[in-house]
Amino acid sequence: MNKLLNLILKSVDDHRSLIPRLVVGLVFLSEGIQKFLFPDSVGAGRFEKIGFTHPEMLASLVATFEMICGLMMLAGFFVRLAAIPLLTIMATAIITTKIPILTGKGFWQMAHDSRTDLSMTMLLIFIFIYGAGRFSADRCLRS
Fold first, then answer.
1. Which string of DSSP letters, residue by residue, matches the chain?
2. Quick check: is 8 in a domain?
3. Which domain holds residue 85?
């Protein structure tokens, strides 16, 4: 168990993860809050338009994960664990909303519409690889 915890908390010993963590944390925290504030356009209404069953429950679940994991990213607290549900959310978003654009409107429209999704996915992969960095709760927990 101790080895697993050390692997999860292991991180680079510099500041390279700080800006990616802040960007990812702020974007996901904001998106989660907006799913509750504007349910028709970015919450349950959007999930229903995409075709998900039980859109209210799913939107609330996704929003909660986005807010909690966004806060974890901001604090640098178990960022590798927080990255997993966020990567799942991003993969689902790309598959359900961007692939149909690719097949319907072509590559360039999909590339334009997916720029944020791809950017967040790449930043999450970066954080998953390098960890939370020097200025994080993970570093404090590991010491």
1. -HHHHHHHH---SSSTTHHHHHHHHHHHHHHHHHHHH-HHHHSHHHHHHHT-SSHHHHHHHHHHHHHHHHHHHHHTSSHHHHHHHHHHHHHHHIIIIIHHHHHHH-HHHHHHHTHHHHHHHHHHHHHHHH-S-SSSHHHHHH-
2. no
3. 15-142
Q: Does the pLDDT at position 1 exceed 70?
A: no
Going from the C-alpha of 26 to that of each of 23, 29, 51, the distances in angstroms are: 5, 5, 27
Residue 15 is encoded by which pair of tokens?
């500041």
Give the model's pLDDT for residue 38: 97
Q: What total of structural domains would you count in the chain? A: 1
- How does pLDDT run across 61-76, given as a tens digit for each residue? 999 999 999 999 999 9
Q: Let me know if residue 2 belongs to a domain.
A: no
Residue 143: per-residue pLDDT = 64
Q: What is the pTM of this model?
A: 0.91
7 domain residue, yes or no: no
